[in-house]
Amino acid sequence: MTRPSPVIVRWLILLALLVFWELFPRTGAIPELFLPPLSKVAAVLMKDWREYASELSVTLYEVAFAMLIACGAGILAGALVGGIALLRNLLLPVFSSLYAVPIVILYPIFTAWFGIGSQSKIIFAGVYGFFPVMLSTAAGIRTIDAQLLLAARSMGATLPQQITRVIIPASIPTILTGLRLGGALTIIGVVVSEMLTSAAGIGYLVTRYRTILDSPHVFGAIVMILLLSILFDTFARAIERRTMVWQTAGRRLKEGEQEPIAAPVPAPV
User: Fold this and answer.
1) What does the DSSP 8-state code read for residue 145?
2) How far is CA 249 from CA 2, 38, 128, 175, in A?
3) What does the alpha-carbon distance between residue 45 and residue 43 come to, in Å, rounded to a whole number?
């Protein structure tokens, strides 16, 4: 008996969850206030799709700019901290300690500095996702083969050229791991900040309908957040597959160069 493929198993698990979501509230096993049936949530999404699309566009705008801060600044700072020994010894313990601080408790400070508009949410979510990207980049750079840097220096590469041409490409797998984690934290940061102080966005919809106990609309907003997270994960996996091709090609080339060539066996006289 052949085992089903992992893809089929995943789809079966998803189908079972959707069936349970529809049946449990219908049978009264779970009150509809806590979990409305899937069909009611789908009906709400179809009925008020303009409202959800409008609020989702606000959230996407904030997530996009926050990811620029988290990923751009995170990769640059990680490259500098991981590549320069002096900065690594001075700053890496500081960043590691700051990563352990729950950033959510600092959100009131962000609202005091930048107001309650989109600016505070973008900067808060950017800082929220900055630390895993920076720490992963720094950790990946420390594992780079020293021969690559030695070869770059011997050919006269400057520090910016070493960072952009050698250090970052060689540490891409570790950087991508940090990007996936940092991107997920960025989405969480935007939604949480919208839930705390906002008049727009998907997080605002969750808070607004939660206060009037409208569970189908609340779960409709949660479905939008799940779709946003799945889209980001799919995008990150696509980039990972692309870079894995480069990594595999590089390893094959290196193995091909290092493969010893068998010497011809002299013919017996």
Assistant:
1) -
2) 33, 46, 35, 19
3) 5
C-alpha 78/C-alpha 76 separation (Å) is 5
Q: What are phi and psi of 183, to 5 degrees?
A: -65, -40
CB under 8 Å to 246, separation ≥6 — which residues? 169, 172
The answer to whether the CB of 100 falls within 8 A of the CB of 132 is no
Distance separating alpha carbons of residues 205 and 185, to the nearest angstrom: 20
Q: Compute and round to an integer the Cα radius of gyration of the chain.
A: 25
Of the candidates 125, 139, 149, 150, the residue with the CA atom closest to the CA atom of residue 172: 139
3-state secondary structure labels for all residues of 206-269: HHHHHHCCCHHHHHHHHHHHHHHHHHHHHHHHHHHHHHHHHHHHHHHHHHHHHCCCCCCCCCCC
Residues 137, 180: Cα–Cα separation, whole Å: 12
Phi then psi for residue 153, to 5 deg, are -65, -40
Band of residue 261 on the pLDDT scale cut at 50, 70, 90:
very low
Model pLDDT for residues 170-190, shown as the tens digit of each residue: 777 778 888 888 888 889 888
The 10 Å Cβ neighbour count of residue 79 is 24
**Phi/psi of residue 36, nearest 5 degrees:** -70, 155
Is-contact 82 141, C-beta < 8 A?
Answer: yes
Please report which residue ranges of 1-84 form alpha helices under DSSP H. Answer: 6-27, 38-47, 49-67, 74-83
- CA atoms of 107 and 122, how far apart (whole Å): 11
Which pair of structure tokens corresponds to residue 252?
Answer: 């094959």
Write out the H or E segment, with its range, that includes residue 92. helix 85-99
What burial class does residue 205 get, using C-beta atoms within 10 Å of its C-beta: 0-12 exposed, 13-18 middle, 19+ buried?
buried
pTM of the model: 0.77
Question: Helix 107-114 crosses helix 118-142 at what angle (to 10 degrees)?
Answer: 120
